[in-house]
Design a protein that fits this description.
This protein has 55 residues and is mainly alpha-helical. It has three helices and no strands. The chain is globular.
């Protein structure tokens, strides 16, 4: 699996997680449904928030 595929996969999973959370899905359930571990989800959300703050 290439690095680009991994990044696209993480972006897709992050978008899915955000959509589920915005629909009031509990965090642990949203992580499970999006295919992310809780620690990966927290890391991706933190990274996503840093990017938004810079722009």
């Amino acid at each position: 699996m290439s690095i680009n595929t991994i990044n696209i996969s993480k972006i897709f999973k992050l978008n899915t997680l955000i959509r589920l959370l915005s629909n009031n899905e509990p965090f642990d359930v949203a992580c499970s449904k999006s295919g992310l571990t809780i620690s990966d989800a927290k890391q991706l959300l933190d990274h996503n928030n840093l990017i938004k703050q810079q722009h």
